[in-house]
Amino acid sequence: MPTLLQINVTANWGSTGKIAEDIGRIAISQGWKSYIAYGRATNPTSSSSLIPIGNKWDMYFHGMQSRILDNHGLASKTATRNLIKKIEEIKPDIIHIHNIHGYFINYEILFEYLSSSGKPIVWTLHDCWPFTGHCAYFDMVNCEKWKNGCNECQHKSTYPASFLMSNSGQNYKKKKDSFLSLKKLTLVPVSNWLSDLLEKSFLANVNKRTIHNGIDINKFKPTQTTNQSTKTILGVASIWEKRKGLEDFIKLRELLPDEYNIRLIGLSNKQIATLPKGITGISRTNNFEELLEHYSKADVYVNPTYEDNFPTTNLEAMACGTPVITYRTGGSPESVTEQTGIVVDKGNIEQLIDAIETIFKNGKQHYSTVCREHAVKYYNKDDKFNEYIELYKSLLK
After folding, report:
1. Which pLDDT tens digits describe the chain residue by residue (397 residues)?
2. pTM, to two decimals
């Protein structure tokens, strides 16, 4: 029985944690033994055996160092050495890394061990952090220093934030030395956009294979909805920060007629309290039926993200029969076709309004069937994540 170990900041929690959970579930169904090592936040109902890395005090100490010294991923030494002891016990055939940022692991110690182990390593890249000296995304500041070596980071106040020192140059070198030390590494970017960026980074010569994210198309599907008197625009985010486009929704509210209602899911109570009239704010919900109803009731899903890899909310909306409008940024446009929605220039509010009016002019029913078919055909998570199992098998050969 082959053994799989995945390493991620969360287990069966949040987007990357649920991806790891589903990969483990499919592996188990095909006769594998599955473990997930995680740093924080877990759903204990996981089908895989869970391995906690460190504790909350270790995470707090790591976070404090990151904020003061800008040395994210270089604390948690004891927690990482304990993880290595556990890896030696379970002897996995494949080690699959996801997000190793998040204040829980020391990448230098981990990669030194992985390099000496000689095991095949798969690394799914959910953002740009692995090849920058600091940030997870750099689109909003149009930075290209990551191509040749970071320095004097202008984005250091963003995650993983540093409020004092800027150490991006040294971080860049440490990452490059550590990550290129693996001889059996396969990178898996989850978008063509990220794959193209890798070709310009210090990871350009590492083996890679793009595997897009998927969703549960049996859960995300159209539901029966009653007729609405208002035209409903939906936005969804786990955390509404500047890069997710909250300010653009507020601009939309100022410019659109009153008959349009904007509904935003995932806002904090503080954000909800400051919303203008005509925007309905809803806090993050773990009630799936409630989320499904919002997707199905909406006339259009708008995703004005300024930085993103391959957002699954686009897929969820389409699977529920709702057309998508998104900015031409990152991997967000890759799932949207002319039949399932509209892609507009990043930050162009006039184009965004024109796209919204076009969707309403055509009517949601013009898009619904093809949206659903597109999601089912290309983004069924069982099909997408089974590609990982086939990748594992090819590496073991």
Report:
1. 999 999 999 999 888 999 999 999 999 999 999 999 999 878 888 999 999 999 999 999 999 999 999 999 999 999 999 999 999 999 999 999 999 999 999 999 999 999 999 999 999 999 999 999 999 999 888 899 999 999 888 888 888 988 888 899 999 999 999 999 999 999 999 999 999 999 999 999 999 999 999 999 999 999 876 566 679 999 999 889 889 999 999 999 999 999 999 999 999 999 999 999 999 999 987 778 889 999 999 999 999 999 999 999 999 999 999 999 999 999 999 999 999 999 999 999 999 999 999 999 999 999 999 999 999 999 999 999 999 999 999 999 8
2. 0.94
Q: Which residues of 3-20 are buried (b: 16+ CB within 10 A; e: fewer)?
A: bbbbbbbbbbbbbbbbbb
Q: Which two tokens stand for residue 242?
A: 């500047």
In sign, the C-alpha dihedral spanning 148, 151, 156, 162 is positive
* H-only helix segments in the chain: 14-29, 56-69, 77-90, 107-117, 168-179, 192-198, 246-255, 269-273, 288-297, 312-319, 349-362, 365-378, 381-396
Count the Cβ atoms, other than its own, within 10 Å of residue 308. 24
The rounded Cα 41 to chain-centroid distance in angstroms is: 16
Q: Which tokens in the block code for residue 2?
A: 């082959």
Greatest distance between any 2 Cα atoms in the chain: 64
Among the listed residues 389, 393, 390, the one whose alpha carbon sits nearest the alpha carbon of residue 26: 389
Total number of residues shown for the chain: 397
* Nearest-angstrom CA–CA distance, 176 and 170: 10
Residue pointed to by tokens 């220093």: 145
Q: Alpha-carbon distance 250 to 272, whole Å?
A: 12
Which residue, among 78, 112, 97, 94, has the nearest Cα to 37 in the 3D structure?
97
Q: Which residues contact 29 (CB under 8 A, 6 or more apart)?
A: none
